[in-house]
Amino acid sequence: MSARRLKRCVSSVSLCGESYMVLNGDVDDDIPTLCMKKGKNGAFACVTEQCIVVGQHDEKAQPGPCRNAVFNLAKYLKD
Predict the structure, then answer these.
(1) Would you call 79 helix, strand, or coil by DSSP?
(2) What are phi and psi of 53, to 5 degrees?
(3) For residue 28, what pLDDT is reported?
(4) CA separation for the pair 6, 77 (Å, rounded)
(5) How far apart are alpha carbons 64 and 6 in whole angstroms?
(6) How confident is the model at residue 25 (pLDDT cuts 50, 70, 90)?
(7) To 10 degrees, the CA torsion angle through 68, 72, 22, 43?
(8) Which one of 5, 39, 55, 72 is at 20 to 30 Å from 27 when CA atoms are compared?
């Protein structure tokens, strides 16, 4: 399932007992990626054939490095 199709189906995701709002979905290098937010905290999820890689960040961290770490791990698992 593509991230765009998933975004249309899912408006929130529960992570560690907290409900995160799904902001957007994207597909980069054939890896579906979701961007989620809860208040000042956020999370990213990438779907691979083997697993779903999830990373969370708090208000003290920038979202870019979190997304990059999750995406790079998913890409490594894909290759």
Answers:
(1) coil
(2) -95, 125
(3) 86
(4) 21
(5) 22
(6) confident
(7) -60
(8) 39
